[in-house]
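@channel anyone free to eyeball this complex?
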Amino acid sequence: MPTIIEEGKDTIIFVTKEDHEAPSNAELVEEDPNDPYEERGLILPSGEINWNCPCLGGMASGPCGSEFKEAFSCFHYSKEEVKGSECLDQFRSMQECMQRYPELYPQEDEKDEKDKQEQATESGANAASEGQKDNDTTESEVKS
Amino acid sequence: MLKCRAVWRKLAPLARSASTQCRHNVKTALNNGRRQAFVPATHMSTGPAGGGGSENTLYVVLVGAACLGGGAYAYMTVRGDSKRYEERISELASRSAKEAPESQPPVAPEPEEAAPTSEESAPVAELSGETESASEAPTEPAVTSLPESAPAPEPVSAPLTLPSHAPYLLIGGGTASFAAARSIRARDPGAKVLIVTDEPNLPYMRPPLSKELWFSDDPSVTETLRFKQWNGKERSIYFQPSSFYVKPEELTSAENGGVAVLTGKKVIQMDVRGNKVKLDDDTEISYDKCLIGTGGVPRNLQVIEKAGDEVMNRTTLFRKIEDFKSLDNVSRNVKSITIIGGGFLGSELACALGRRSSETGLEVIQMFPEKGNMGKVLPEYLSNWTTEKVKKEGVRIVPEALVKSVAFKEDKLEILLKDGRQVKTDHIVAAVGLEPNVDLAKSAGLEVDSDFGGYRVNAELQARSNIWVAGDAACFYDIRLGRRRVEHHDHAVVSGRLAGENMTGANKPYWHQSMFWSDLGPDVGYEAIGIVDSSLPTVGVFAKATSKDTPKAATEQSGTGIRSESETEATAVTPVASSTPAPVMEHKDEYGKGVIFYLRDKVVVGIILWNVFNRMPIARKIIKDGEEHADLNEVAKLFNIHED
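replying in thread with the prediction:
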């Protein structure tokens, strides 16, 4: 049983692991997936890409922003069997642009950036985890 | 918009050839149409009256009318197209004419830059049909955005002028402005954003100045300003290196737009009706949309300000990079530093300097009016516990201290407190709050909030039609928590991003709740969200450290559900005993990890996650719901505090 101590207006409760074993009966309000105010993940409910997603970092806003957007849009809307296979031109011009700014786009991380994008697309498609990821990256932006 | 640009770029070469084709076709169609129109006329005037003739006539009339209609439509469309085409040409011509004198020198030493941009410049060159000047226009941005490794070869011959107009003008070069710039660029492709800051630095993040930078092993950290993140990776405090930005002089002509930072210039006046600002060097910049992100200036104690130069020269007001450098230097050269202030900044600096004291023998003193560290944030029991931890970091705490006067005597600073206590020290750091910078309010006619300070803005961070305010200087309406002003880093990021979204037409209110965090030594780290004011009633749920030790039998015997550690020592504890200090003392070491809820009218308005991490989304959800919860222990279960 939890230990409860009252210190004036402050209440202190000590709980063991067993005390918290039973699932919570606290009621949370159901999430509205179409809430216009809510901060969105990478993919908006309409299916479009949220270029302002914190998960993209500065990719869409830097000097290579337009190249990145073109490449990523092509990839996102690609319906080929190998997704994005018709987007090689766009990815190439993006890569060329990034090579001009080695400070901003470190070369050894380039492959990681692409992997991250692909990862982001896959996880962004999952609406449930959007909020979670969004917050984590805001905080990683914050903590960093 | 993006797709249009992409499509346009791809179709541009086609468009040119297509338009000539079209015009060719139309000419023939027109001629045909005219000829056809003539045919029925002549036919009708000369044709015989009668059935056969009229049927034929009708057919010819219909065909003729159709051709005429089709031809006319095609002609109108192509006319519109060619008009757009002409406009584009003239625009390019005027642009290249402006740049011709400037772009000649940079293009000469760097011809190879044309190669990677040829893909981009080719369609432009085709459209324009100009010679070198047009092809130099697209290479302009490529040249300007080269990393600034060689500032010398920059052309001095042609005078580059600062922009007189910025579509997006951001006043202040801090976190809020940078977040807004990023948001604007993400949502408005090709946007031209000008940041004006009176600091000499590019935008940087502030938290490491009082945290990570002090724990770096690198002796040159004051120069590099690099630190190790929680995930092990190293980074600079600057949000982006200088190569990310466009030079202010080149902003207007940058084809894809960009973010330019004008350093060392202060905006001193704002003309809201004329949509322009005046800088301290008398230049004027007009804008379409403006963000005020002027942050604030550290407060000082009046007694210090009145104490004279000797005292002022030995006092640090900590906020900027130069303050960090100066304090780092001071801490290596004095024997005693006193921090006045027991809030976030004061406590973090005290812990950082305290850690250094073990190596250097530096005496670190911290004094504040409250009873314990973070006294205005943490409930008393937790504030006291935290103070003990700060003491363990090597800091001498002087609580309940109100400074009466400060004097410079015998090479030392003498701080006299109102209760008679005296503290002798070499250097003072005053961390007594932030004064929001509302210098522009008067000239701009903007409202200043009397309760919280700062510019008063609505829930969408708007002060007036084209003016938004974000960050420390914004007193805004939070739909959930009411009117407030927040001085935390994540709020600057969140509000800056929101302001940027609204400057590009989003019309969204402040909804995503920002958070903050602090670390006080190796044992105490917490994240918080919402309103965490210690004057509010709180409910803290902490994980019991030694739950396995306590026998269950004793719990069942007590019956009332109140259990204390003393039971293991076979001492009976009555329900009355719980309100005495004794049980609290026994739990002294038990605030290891937990969740603290701050309540206002029974609704949770603030949450602190005490040494419990990665649960912020749950906390955010609870605040957003704004529900009354009967049993907060049940709510605490959602956080799984016993897990790691």
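from a first look: Residues 14-52, 96-157, 546-586 of chain B have pLDDT under 50 and may be disordered.
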